[in-house]
Write a structure and sequence with these properties.
By secondary structure, the protein is an alpha+beta fold. It has six helices and seven strands. β1 (45-50) and β2 form a beta hairpin.
C-alpha cells in the first residue's frame, strides 16, 4: 500500500480499519505519484455528493489540486452548495485516458478517484488565494485579467476545498502490462 503516509495512514491496519476498501485488482493500481500527476494535468472531473432526497448528485467541475486538496468554485447558492452543507463527504473522479478498443470489447483507461470532505472556505484571504490558484491554472500568466475578474465576481462565488482522505488510481490491465 503506497498511499499510507501521504494521507495520514500509519500502518496497513489503519487502512483496514478505515472506510475505504482496498483495490481488488492491485496490479492495476497506480502509484501515488501517478495519481497526483493525473490530478495535476486533468482539466475537469466529476464531484459526487449526497443530493436532494438522498439521491446521488454528480456534477462536472473544473478544479485545481494543491497540497493534498482539490479546490473548486461555485455559485453562492444551488444544489451543490446545499448538498455540501447537509453532508460533507464526497468523491471526485477524473478520467485521464479513455481509449475505446471496440474489436477487443474493452477500453484502455486510466482514472483517479479521490475521497474526502468538502467544505466552503470561509476565510477571505484563503478564498482569494484559492480562487487565484484556480484562475492561474486555466489562464496562466494573466495576473491583471485575473485580478479584474476576482474584483467583479468574487462576491458572487464560494470557493470549495475537498481535503483528500483517500486517493486511488487505476489503469486498464493492458496499460499495466505495457508499463511493467
Amino acid at each position: 500500500m503506497h498511499f499510507l503516509c501521504d494521507f495520514g495512514y500509519k500502518t496497513k491496519n489503519d487502512i483496514m480499519m478505515s472506510n475505504f476498501r482496498p483495490m481488488r485488482r492491485q496490479r492495476q493500481q497506480l502509484s501515488m505519484e501517478e495519481s497526483i500527476s493525473i490530478l495535476q494535468r486533468a482539466t475537469s472531473g466529476t464531484l459526487a455528493l449526497l443530493g436532494d432526497n438522498d439521491y446521488p448528485y454528480a456534477v462536472p467541475l473544473s478544479f485545481v489540486y494543491h497540497d493534498g486538496s482539490l479546490y473548486f468554485h461555485s455559485a453562492v447558492t444551488g444544489h451543490k452548495v446545499d448538498a455540501i452543507r447537509r453532508h460533507d463527504k464526497a468523491s471526485f473522479c477524473v478520467i485521464d485516458q479513455d481509449e475505446v478498443h471496440g474489436e477487443r470489447y474493452t477500453t484502455f483507461f486510466r482514472s483517479v478517484i479521490a475521497f474526502g470532505h468538502v467544505s466552503i472556505i470561509e476565510d477571505a484571504e484563503e478564498k482569494i488565494a484559492t480562487a487565484r490558484l484556480l484562475g492561474n491554472r486555466y489562464n496562466p500568466n494573466q495576473d491583471e485579467a485575473l485580478e479584474k475578474e476576482l474584483e467583479n465576481a468574487l462576491h458572487r462565488m464560494v470557493m470549495l476545498r475537498m481535503k483528500i482522505e483517500h486517493l486511488t488510481g487505476k489503469e486498464a490491465i493492458e496499460l499495466a502490462r505495457k508499463n511493467s
